[in-house]
């Protein structure tokens, strides 16, 4: 599988550079489109580094784990088709979606985006406008069914070793502000919002929740996110 990391996957300096980039070509992950046997229900995952599980194995991505958990619950969901890349902001994800020319509809759509808007110091107003547009796009992918869309909150990267020499309190406050915007937009469009941010902050006291690159989260953390999302995802088929 191709991993979208710049040169050295354990170099936090290069990961910093990747976060600061301002343009990316669209990336689609067709290898995750479906298991060997076609599933009854389809799944599209939209996002950034957290959606592709930067620095962890494919099987440890929270999106992959969510699909697996749904299948174990008797809901025949395919592994996700994924449009995501490390460093993407809301605007870059929307551009990538347009350029990918994906025009299918899906039974489940997940969206996790915004950390790079916060990291680059973009305004809440910009994020709100662009997030709303993405949310509307996600709903269209879900055949205009808002309840088939799940949005996960932005995790707090300020608790990772990468942020040790930064203002972690400020990062937390900004992440919370971005998430407040996202949650309000979800409520207005009747989209389910899954708050995984408090869980992400467990990494401050437990290094096993951090990936080897010291910036992203581990498969152990993603397992907890998938567990949080599972009961809400299951309601789609109730």
Roughly how many Å apart are the termini?
Answer: 35 Å
**Count of DSSP E strands?**
6
- Report strand order across the widest sheet: 1-3-2-4-5-6
Mean pLDDT: 89
Number of alpha- plus pi-helical segments: 9
The percentage helix is 40-55%
Number of domains: 1
Over the alpha carbons, how many angstroms does the gyration radius reach?
A: 16 Å
The CATH topology is given as Rossmann fold
Largest beta-sheet characterization:
6 strands, mixed
Following the backbone from N to C, one meets helices and strands in this order, namely HEEHHEHEHHEHEHH
CATH uppermost class: Alpha Beta
Say which CATH homologous superfamily is assigned: SGNH hydrolase
Shape: globular
Q: What key attributes describe this structure?
A:
10% strand, globular, hydrolase, six-stranded mixed beta sheet, single chain, alpha/beta, disordered N terminus, SGNH_hydro_sf, 238 residues, SGNH_hydro, Rossmann fold
Give the SSE layout.
Blueprint: H1 12-20, E1 28-29, E2 43-47, H2 49-52, H3 62-72, E3 81-84, H4 90-100, E4 108-112, H5 115-119, H6 124-141, E5 149-152, H7 168-188, E6 192-194, H8 197-200, H9 219-234
Parallel strand pairs: 2-3, 2-4, 4-5, 5-6
Antiparallel strand pairs: 1-3
Compact overview of the structure:
This protein is of the alpha/beta class and 238 residues long. It has one domain (12-237): Rossmann fold, CATH 3.40.50. The chain is built from nine helices and six strands.
Mind explaining what this structure looks like?
Pfam families: Lipase_GDSL_2. It is globular and about 45 Å long. The chain has nine helices and six strands. The protein has one domain: SGNH hydrolase (Rossmann fold, 3-Layer(aba) Sandwich), CATH 3.40.50. The longest helix has 21 residues, at 168-188. The model is unreliable at 1-26 and 30-35 (pLDDT under 50). The relative contact order is 0.17. The chain has 238 residues and is of the alpha/beta class. Helix content is 42%, strand content 10%.
């Amino acid at each position: 599988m191709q991993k979208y990391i710049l040169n050295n996957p354990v170099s936090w300096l290069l990961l910093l550079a990747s976060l600061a980039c301002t343009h990316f070509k669209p990336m689609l992950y067709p290898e995750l489109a479906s298991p060997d046997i076609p599933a009854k229900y389809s799944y599209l995952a939209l996002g950034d580094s957290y959606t592709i599980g930067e620095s962890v194995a494919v099987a440890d991505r929270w999106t992959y784990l969510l699909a697996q958990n749904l299948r174990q619950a008797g809901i025949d969901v395919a592994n996700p088709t994924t449009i995501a890349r490390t460093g993407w902001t809301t605007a870059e994800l929307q551009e990538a979606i347009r350029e990918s020319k994906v025009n299918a509809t899906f039974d489940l759509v997940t969206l996790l985006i915004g950390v790079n808007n916060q990291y680059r110091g973009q305004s809440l107003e910009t994020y709100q406008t662009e997030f709303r547009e993405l949310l509307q796009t996600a709903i269209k992918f879900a055949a205009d069914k808002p309840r088939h869309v799940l949005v996960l909150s932005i995790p707090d990267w300020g608790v990772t070793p990468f942020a040790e020499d930064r203002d972690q309190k400020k990062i937390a406050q900004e992440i919370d502000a971005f998430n407040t915007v996202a949650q309000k937009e979800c409520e207005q469009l009747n989209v389910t919002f899954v708050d995984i941010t408090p869980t992400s902050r467990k990494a401050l006291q437990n290094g096993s929740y951090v990936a080897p690159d010291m910036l992203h989260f581990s498969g152990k953390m993603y397992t907890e996110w998938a567990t949080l999302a599972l009961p809400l995802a299951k309601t789609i088929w109730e």
